[in-house]
């Protein structure tokens, strides 16, 4: 299967000129797919970032979708609208972008809701996945939170965010990619050091090794999450080309 390189919509929120201008910049980077983010699309149907206007912008740009960062709250409030949006533009993964628990019991208490979501999504041709931030890379008991979620729900896929796997957290992302082989729906491509964001491959999060391991284990979707503005275009282009060279 051909590998897909996409851009995360969150990375475009600061681009000058709105979504049409941002999508034009994405096309100039040679990227044909976007990962949508529900936070960019308010409920107001007349707002510039409504689902209807996002559809229109995608149509004008000729862009497709991969995955989709959709919260549990949006599942409850607007499932049918998001389902149609994802499927109409080629996405088959509903990725929960975050949740919150203070204790291990709090995190495990999320799983019944995730299972309810999975049953509905499966019926409609979609899969459920979970995206890690820093809070899922905290160790509670004998495992990290992300491991607890994945190990207790085999149907839950993973979307790993490279730039959160700092050495100080004591986790090797390539090891986790191998551990959950067959369950990684996509990789968020970025990088960082203990001091902050870095160019992809120049940080300390094993970005290149992680991408290569993902490829070796069958992952085909890689989503650039590096903030894009007119001023950062050349730097982001460098990250895109670095990633494209690796994934082919």
Description:
The structure is a single chain. The chain has 248 residues and is of the alpha/beta class. The protein has one domain (4-247): Alpha-Beta Barrel (TIM Barrel), CATH 3.20.20. The protein is 39% helix and 17% strand. The chain has nine helices and twelve strands. It has an eight-stranded parallel beta sheet. It has a two-stranded antiparallel ribbon with strand order 6-7. β1 (4-8), α1 (18-28) and β2 form a beta-alpha-beta unit. α1 (18-28) runs parallel beside α2 and α7 (173-179) packs parallel to α8. The longest helix is centred in the N-terminal third of the chain and has 17 residues, at 72-88. The radius of gyration is 17 Å and the shape is globular. The protein starts with a strand and ends with a helix. The model has no long low-confidence stretch (mean pLDDT 95).
Number of beta-strand segments: 12
Q: Give the H and E element order.
A: EHEHEHEHHEEEHEHEEEHEH
Which parts are unreliable, with pLDDT below 50 for 5 consecutive residues or more? Answer: none
CATH superfamily, please?
Divalent-metal-dependent TIM barrel enzymes
* Sheet with the most strands: spatial strand order: 3-2-1-12-9-8-5-4
Structural class by sheet pairing and helices: alpha/beta
């Amino acid at each position: 299967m051909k590998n897909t390189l996409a851009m995360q919509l969150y990375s475009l929120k600061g681009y000058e000129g709105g979504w049409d201008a941002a999508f034009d910049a994405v096309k100039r980077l040679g990227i044909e797919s976007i990962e949508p983010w529900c936070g960019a699309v308010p409920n107001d149907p007349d707002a510039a970032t409504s689902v209807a206007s996002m559809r229109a912008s995608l149509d004008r740009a000729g862009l497709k979708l991969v995955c989709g960062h959709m919260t549990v709250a949006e599942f409850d409030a607007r499932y049918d609208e998001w389902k149609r949006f994802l499927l109409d533009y080629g996405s088959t993964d509903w990725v929960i972008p975050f949740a919150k628990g203070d204790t291990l019991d709090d995190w495990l208490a999320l799983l019944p809701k995730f299972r309810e979501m999975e049953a509905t999504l499966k019926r409609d041709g979609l899969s459920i996945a979970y995206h890690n931030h820093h809070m899922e890379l905290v160790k509670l008991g004998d495992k990290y939170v992300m491991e607890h979620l994945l190990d207790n729900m085999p149907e839950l896929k993973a979307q790993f965010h490279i730039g959160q796997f700092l050495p100080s957290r004591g986790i090797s992302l390539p090891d986790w990619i191998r551990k959950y082989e067959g369950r990684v729906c996509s990789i968020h491509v970025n990088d960082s050091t203990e001091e902050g964001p870095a160019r992809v491959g120049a940080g300390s999060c094993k970005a290149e090794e992680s991408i290569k391991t993902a490829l070796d284990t069958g992952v085909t979707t890689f989503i650039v999450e590096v903030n894009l503005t007119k001023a950062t275009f050349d730097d982001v282009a460098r990250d895109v080309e670095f990633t494209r060279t690796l994934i082919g």
